[in-house]
Amino acid sequence: MNSYHMTPGQFREQGKKLIDWIADYYEEIEKYPVLSQIRPGDVFNKLPAKAPAEGESFDTMLTDVEQIIMPGITHWQHPGFFAYFPSNTSFPSILGDLLSSGLGVQGMIWATSPAATELETRVLDWLADMMALPADFRSAGKGGGVIQDTASSSALTAMVAAREKATFFVSNRKGVQGKLTAYVSSQTHSSLEKAAKIAGIGYENLRVVAVNENFAMDPEDLRRQISADRQSGNIPFFVCGTIGTTSSNAMDPLRKIGEICRHEDLWFHVDGAMSGTALVCPEFRYLADGMELADSFCFNPHKWMFTNFDCDCFWVADRKHLIHTFSILPEYLRNQATESGAVIDYRDWHIQLGRRFRSLKLWFVIRHYGSEGLRHHIRQHVAMAHEFAQWVQSRGEFELIMPPPLNLVCFRYRGSDEHNMQIMDNINQAGECYFTHTKLDGRIVLRLSVAQTGTESRHVDKLKKLLLAEIEKIRN
Amino acid sequence: MNSYHMTPGQFREQGKKLIDWIADYYEEIEKYPVLSQIRPGDVFNKLPAKAPAEGESFDTMLTDVEQIIMPGITHWQHPGFFAYFPSNTSFPSILGDLLSSGLGVQGMIWATSPAATELETRVLDWLADMMALPADFRSAGKGGGVIQDTASSSALTAMVAAREKATFFVSNRKGVQGKLTAYVSSQTHSSLEKAAKIAGIGYENLRVVAVNENFAMDPEDLRRQISADRQSGNIPFFVCGTIGTTSSNAMDPLRKIGEICRHEDLWFHVDGAMSGTALVCPEFRYLADGMELADSFCFNPHKWMFTNFDCDCFWVADRKHLIHTFSILPEYLRNQATESGAVIDYRDWHIQLGRRFRSLKLWFVIRHYGSEGLRHHIRQHVAMAHEFAQWVQSRGEFELIMPPPLNLVCFRYRGSDEHNMQIMDNINQAGECYFTHTKLDGRIVLRLSVAQTGTESRHVDKLKKLLLAEIEKIRN
Fold this sequence. Notes:
Helix content of chain A: 40-55%
Strand order of the largest sheet of chain A: 1-7-6-5-4-2-3
Largest interface: A-B, 167 and 167 residues
CATH topology of the largest domain in chain A: Aspartate Aminotransferase, domain 2
Oligomer: homodimer
């Protein structure tokens, strides 16, 4: 039969070319401006308005990648990337993901590719062990772990499971009937608000708990708000605490929040999207004190553990809540393994049905680095951030907003908000570094997030120099 | 600084080895049994209970892939894979996905990597053109397209946007207050029921509309049920029609359903997860007659368009409903491009915040094959399915349940349900082919889904021989 497929031989040739292209990219990445400098429409307008009728060569495509796509890339893997939260990766992860693409299997249920389910269960057990998570989070206990795409999906999954538990599964059946209230702090990630909307809770029923001077949730205010809601006839059902908020890396007091949740019978979700990675190091585990009171926890190896997007690890203390909430079994997916009850069908642990073999890349990363190798690099990032914070404190021009618990430093120039934004924009536009801002207590604050795979002290030192040069410009 | 990272040199070496490994896999794929033959726990128990403390070599990992993982793989890319719906892929797609892993960028908003947004917009416009979708679905119109992970997520996105439109955004604010009713047929994909649960609608408020003898939705029953709901004080808000249901590839009458939706002011979502691909061919576009009445449509290039999972294309006729429903703008994501209104921020078009650069693989696939190459292979799959259906009809042992509109054939042996299951299980366990069953009108029906990238007539012919041999066994 006539065929337009690329042959294995062509794949060998082009694949190896692309491997070299990627290796070259990392070797030369510092030649690119970190933040893309194009204007809206620049890429779109260079692409033809219609798809080609006849096939094109891979070489043409790779040339277009270089000429059209690359100028529109903001280089998240550049060692001068200090913006937002990281999304770091590593070569072993890229290879694991390539293998996943190559095998092209579906892990929606055990039967559709048993290895995809069983490797995922094992690797999530490994991580639970490496991070000293509570025994209930292991597959040998009542709970277990699953890979989700993002912490947003984990938050939604947790909130819906909590909603069902609180309504005795009536909301799944009859729909939400109002009155349910959930609790976050003003610093909780925006995905929780999005989840409250999607899950039919409503953002007005998402209570915003006060924070202390370090932007951590105030448990007394949480207790007060839950009590006020009960008195008004509302049904409190869910609290989200955070290990390392996005704005300022604030650490919520998990034990105190967890005790309130146990007492009040509320689902306690812990979001450790970036900072959860630090639990791999024993010296940072004090941040997770009280985790045994949590019903669910997530962190993202695709942020700070050298595993490329998407890879969010989500654990529950009791998997039956997920299965009761999300299980659906149409005839065309029925099979003996599922009916035996001896296997995990991960489709019942999240929103989607189809699922990629994502544990491969995580397995490759953990095995390549070993737990000691991972600890080494996490500690290096924290050390670089702390060194930068000390430098900020040693300079009269700057104010350190709070001592950084881990690898995110919040600071500001002792000038106006406009000055701070101008410093940031100028440095970002010059292209050697890229960092971003937030607002804390109504003021613009600059954020340095140190977590790129290739970041070394010299990259942080470069930023120091650029900051001083910008201040010099403002003063003159 | 001491480093545990894999070097670019090591990546070149191991990456090329892995490219060869994948090429070998496809060249030798027919040596594997399609359906994995392991028992629950076989993979899990071969993996160490704890992560290694020290790093391991890539060669060790690849050996474990071969010895531990491969026996637990069900080979979705095997040309004898006729099960479920396909999840086909191709070498250009694997390369596009590798490039995406290698660049490791985040496309959550335009500013975080403009090319990721703009390529996606362009490629979805290409597809809208290739499939003759309505003008409103193009980015130049009021709507536009976005890549989601799965059709499940698209269904949830559409249902929540519909819910907000119907409640004038009150449900996002105050939560769902009951009374909302949605409509599907008994053949609609289970993800719609899951979406109704997650979105706080409740599965009792998901009305199941009757189907005709070809399992297509009966528009008169839809009209009756909407009317009955209005009389009961309910608020009908959403209908899902399907191009090619999962069980039997039934085609809902989109125009009639769409006219009812317009008249009743309900959101009309069209799910073409697998069969939508056929719209690339002009001769199959009659299946989409009435699409201009739809508010949203999705299909999965990761099913039947040689693009590896995950890649679901989702279009809306009016993007403002998505943005009003899902938009969230925390300070730390504020930027000039977003505030100018001149760019698309895709985070507001779906559930998640973070997003992978998935348009690369789709771009590579479309450019490698060209629209004519894609048409050629889609037509080949349909032709093979039709040839098989004719064979079924020509044999007295079998019953063809209905003429296949595209590439899915539903048939049964003229014997008991147990006989049919036994035939299927025996063939699947032997390993040369893998196909699955469903239940239609209370009877077990066998399904042949012809859509694997490498499937040729000889693979379908092999299945014919195996079927006859099993029947021979039953008769003796």
